[in-house]
Write a structure and sequence with these properties.
Radius of gyration: 22 Å
Structural class: alpha/beta
Number of domains: 2
CATH topology of the largest domain: Rossmann fold
Strand content: 15-25%
CATH superfamily of the largest domain: Glycogen Phosphorylase B
Strand order of the largest sheet: 3-2-1-4-5-6-7
CATH class of the largest domain: Alpha Beta
Largest sheet: 7 strands, parallel
């Protein structure tokens, strides 16, 4: 029986992205285990993986436990379980897990696959930060057997900096999106009307939806300021998500005198319905890998307004969405106005986006993983 361990810093990455992969490989007869911070507290993880492991990762890259406590925990788990493949996601878990594996005896090392959900060095970031994160990535790349990138900028960066040999570098279209779940035909007009009423909208109100954790990199402040700049009282902005900056953004909405047009919805489990009920969705992030929320919106034929950053740029290229520069308040306001004032053109734009989503189908991405895993196992057997 082949054995794979899927690793992420926090369990929400496992539940949000990797459960379909775990289910698929278990059906093929694999043992599939999961590892993250407090994984055993997540019912979905317990039900989907054969076993789950808790590791004391911290989302803070500079936290001391990431290089003291966590590597020892990982090493003990790996020494006892003899995995064929360890597939790691997200930056902190990727660095710590690769460091832990580098300290194992050669004969007990599994093959390490790293899916990059956006390098921490990127265009537009501060020079010193880029230098630090690039240096760390170069160190960890020497402990990496295979690397998967999910957007064009990261693919180019991995090649330019020679992080890994070309035959072990793979591009894949993200971690996939379920086209059958994010399907506009599944959502009725009645459901759309009801959810709009629950937010407090009239039939003539336009709704711009933003789905992102309230943290500085998502730049919710830019969206609020763009709404204020737009100066159209019939346009409402809804935020789906939670996070440490929510109260600050609520205060900013009041300071900008748009609080009656802004709705803080918290964590939602009806995102397909919310997206379909929206005039457009918006993402102003300064850094993304390949944002699932943009993919979901495109699948539902809802127009997207996005920042000109990697991942978003890939998805909205060729007229599949409206793009503004990161931090360009006027640009976001103009993009909102265009979508509102050109409904037919916006619908056609969204249809083009949906057509693009065919290659991002989760079933296709799972097949790519199956092919890569087979290659990894064959090479491992040949080496042995």
């Amino acid at each position: 029986m082949s054995k794979v361990l899927m690793v992420a810093t926090v369990p929400i990455t496992l539940t949000g992205f990797l459960l379909p992969f775990a289910q698929h490989f278990r059906k093929l007869g694999w043992q599939v285990d999961g590892m993250a911070l407090e994984t055993s507290s997540m019912t979905e993880c317990l039900e989907t993986f054969d076993r789950v492991w808790d590791v004391d990762f911290s989302r803070n890259p500079l936290a001391r436990e990431n290089l003291s406590v966590a590597p020892q925990q990982i090493q003990k788990i790996l020494e006892k379980n003899e995995y064929d493949i360890v597939h790691v996601h997200t930056a902190v878990a990727a660095f710590v897990t690769r460091y832990a594996i580098s300290r194992l005896k050669k004969q007990s090392k599994p093959k390490l696959i790293y899916t990059v959900h956006g390098f921490h060095f990127f265009r537009g970031n501060k020079f010193r930060r880029n230098a630090v994160y690039l240096t760390l990535e170069k160190i960890a790349a020497s402990w990496t057997d295979y690397m998967i990138v999910i957007n064009g900028e990261d693919l180019e960066a991995a090649k330019r900096h020679r992080l890994i040999s070309p035959e072990r570098l793979y591009y894949m279209p993200g971690i996939g999106v379920d086209l059958s779940y994010y399907n506009p035909d599944n959502i009725s007009d009645t459901d759309i009307q009801l959810v709009r009423q629950s937010i407090g909208l009239t039939p003539n109100d336009a709704l711009i939806l933003a789905s992102a954790e309230f943290n500085p990199g998502k730049r919710h402040r830019d969206m609020l300021r763009a709404l204020s700049r737009l100066a159209r009282p019939d346009v409402h902005l809804a935020f789906a998500g939670t996070g440490p900056l929510m109260e600050e953004m609520q205060r900013l909405a009041s300071e900008l005198d748009v609080q009656k047009q802004v709705h803080f919805l918290g964590y939602r489990q009806d995102m397909p319905l919310l997206m379909r009920a929206s005039t457009a969705t918006m993402m102003a992030s300064e850094r993304e890998g390949l944002p699932r929320s943009v993919m979901e919106s495109l699948c539902l034929e809802t127009p997207v307004i996005g920042a000109d950053t990697r991942g978003i740029r890939d998805l909205l290229a060729d007229g599949c969405g409206r793009i503004a520069k990161v931090g360009d308040i006027e640009g976001f306001a103009n993009a909102m106005a265009w979508v509102l004032d050109n409904p037919e053109a916006a619908r056609m734009m969204a249809k083009r986006g949906k057509e693009r989503m065919a290659k991002y189908d989760v079933r296709h991405v799972i097949q790519l993983h199956e092919e890569l895993y087979a290659e990894v196992l064959n090479k491992k057997l040949a080496y042995c």
